[in-house]
Amino acid sequence: MHYKEIAGIAVMAALPVLAPGQVQLDLPERPADAPEGSEFFEEIRELSREEREQRVLNEIARGNVPEFLRELVPVTVEGEISGETESMTIHVTPDYMAIGSDEDFFRMPMSAPLAQQVADLLDSSLPTRKIVNDIHEQADMQFSPQPFSPEDYEIDTVEVFRLSHQAIEAQRGERPLGELVSGIKKDIVVTAELPNRPPPRRVAIYGWHWPAGEPIQPLSLVHHEYYMDYSHGVRLVWNSIDVEGGKMTMREILADPVLHPLLSDEGPFDSSVYPVEEPYLLDTAGEPGGVEEGEGPERQGQARHSVH
After folding, report:
1. Is the pTM of this model over 0.70?
2. Is the bond preceding 218 in cis, omega lying within 30 degrees of 0?
């Protein structure tokens, strides 16, 4: 076992034993008493946003994550470096972050601050627009988006989160878990535009590609940082990237004046981390904690749109 620090709190985690070239999320084993995805849905469906997100963080931190999400998959990225096309390999989660087991899991939309906390916890970053495009091009399964109209559904509710998850699973059918998937969610992304928007702080979303390659969602920062709906997903990129001469983090490469084209189509930038001013406190026993009733960030007028 070893300890890592997240939001100033030491968390015990198990170091996985890996085969050469294998990359895994640094998570404890899934507890025997952890709720399955369908059970977790029932437990959170009536909670406030703050209470729900606290539970999501708690479950991920204690290892209630499906096995298939733990082993990351390689994606090749290319960019023009000094007039030459260069490439390198990054590692990403094959699907979007979820709670539960392989047999019964629930893909969970999150706010931008929670997505950043989860990424920090797991030594990962959130993707850029370019990375999302690269993932789609190389995906083993390119599914068709399945929108839920805001005219007919309350798209920011847990009930619709669950309906969306079930629709994705119906489309997946018997295809194996662990293959690289695209076309099922909009990604929370990092972008050079994050510091350029007026208050309140924003979430940047992009993607939800059709199989032919056209994204439903262009890069958008119209929503405040705590907005989420059923179409949002959190995919992680492993922070440690092999480059010639050693290793660099995704953040270092994005800010690098030479290497950034490998990961960014927006030029170099250092706004690759969402600020987390009020982090949720970890309780790896899985009990809600860290947010008293009435505390935490305000829920600000959740908009009702499938494309933002």
Report:
1. yes
2. no
Assess if residue 211 is contained within a domain. Answer: yes
Structural domains in the chain (count): 1
The span from the CA of 148 to the CA of 223, in Å, is: 18
Range of the domain at 209: 2-262
> Are 58 and 282 contacting, i.e. CB atoms less than 8 angstroms apart?
yes
* 308 residues of the chain, pLDDT tens digit each: 333 444 443 343 443 444 546 899 999 999 999 999 999 999 999 999 999 999 999 999 999 999 999 999 999 999 999 999 999 999 999 999 999 999 999 999 999 999 999 999 999 999 999 999 999 999 999 999 999 999 999 999 999 999 999 999 999 999 999 999 999 999 999 999 999 999 999 999 999 999 999 999 999 999 999 999 999 999 999 999 999 889 999 999 999 999 999 999 999 999 999 999 989 988 766 454 433 333 333 333 333 333 44
